[in-house]
Amino acid sequence: MEDYSGYFRQGDLIAKYLKGELSSQEQDELTDWIAQSDHNRALFGKLTQEETLNRELDQFAPSRKAEAWERIATETGFTKPTFVTYIVNRWTRYGVAALLLLVSGLAAYELIYKPEPAPQVTVQPTDFAPGSNKAILTLADASQINLDDATNGKIAQQADMIITKTADGQLVYDLSQSAAGSSEDQEVSPIYNTITTPRGGKFRVALPDGSKVWLNAASSLRYPTKFRGRERAVELKGEAYFEVAHAKNKANERVPFRVLSAGQIVEVLGTHFNINSYSDENSTKTTLLEGKVKVIKTRAYALANSAKTEAASALVLKPGEQAQLALGTQPKLNLVAQVDLEEAVAWKNGQFQFKDTDLPTIMRQIARWYDVEIAFQGRVSDAKFRGKISRDVPLSQFFQILQLSGVNFKIEGRKITVKS
């Protein structure tokens, strides 16, 4: 016979949530379960709605608790008296009326007999859709192309470089056939393009050297349409994940790739790494997943020749390490020896993931991805949050999880006030 005990466990956790008696470990367990699927989030919403509970409570009066559990036991295949006794005794320990007993039974019944996805439950009268592929491409002549409106295929040409938008939401740079057949690499002034994602947007770029870049919301990347000389340099604002291709010049020398962001340069030869360089964060974080990079704290830089940048200090990262450049009047470059790599690049893989993350940090991510304005009312909670949820869900489903920890929200237009 199938073991149904896990289903009743989730009901117990929801019942204890309603009582306000979840331990820290139980709250993490319930949060993880809610985040696992839309079905779980919808069921949690249903079982914590006053209207649902009032309706069901009429059928499960306290005086009939034993009969109610006998019916549930029969329906789920548990016909032994020991099961009913166990459940009733557990309910007695809770010391609350049939409401809590009811929640546990309803949760088990729903999970056992209605495993198909349930209708989405909106906990706020106003909801916000998640972000999507959106970006603006600014060409060298300052003209702009809205990439989410542009049709797939060739969208522009800069000198000998053809710019294409692919069906999977990616910008690709390829040499024209005439340029590809030429062995000349004339020394001309570089032509720069800039791709910018708005709040609520993301996009991917395949650079002229074959390197791949994933841009997070509210970010921009400036780069030449063709890399020349002894380096490949790009400029980042916001957050991006890089997979850098190896490249050699005519002398068969490796050409370094450099990413310039506020106060630092990241220098690589070929590697995978993430840079979070938002202006509203407390620090710029460079996380290495594969290969080797040097993070250079700078006093000044020039995109056209970052190799001559004046360096103040530097760190060399190994996979699994993170450099943190604290922002402010006296920036300091620090090394974090071990970081959660999955958390660092969760956004690129379509997830929000938090590990002992404070509420203001979470709300900044929400603001950028859902394109909303965030304000705090009263004292800001110093609680730390853990958990994972898809970036494809409406904002209301995200709020369901935060509300488990006593965080509440007031929505006025696109302004969200956080009350904790």
TrEMBL record:
This is DUF4974 domain-containing protein. It comes from Spirosoma arboris. One of its GO terms (molecular function) is sigma factor antagonist activity. Residues 194-294 form the FecR protein domain. Residues 352-418 form the Protein FecR C-terminal domain.
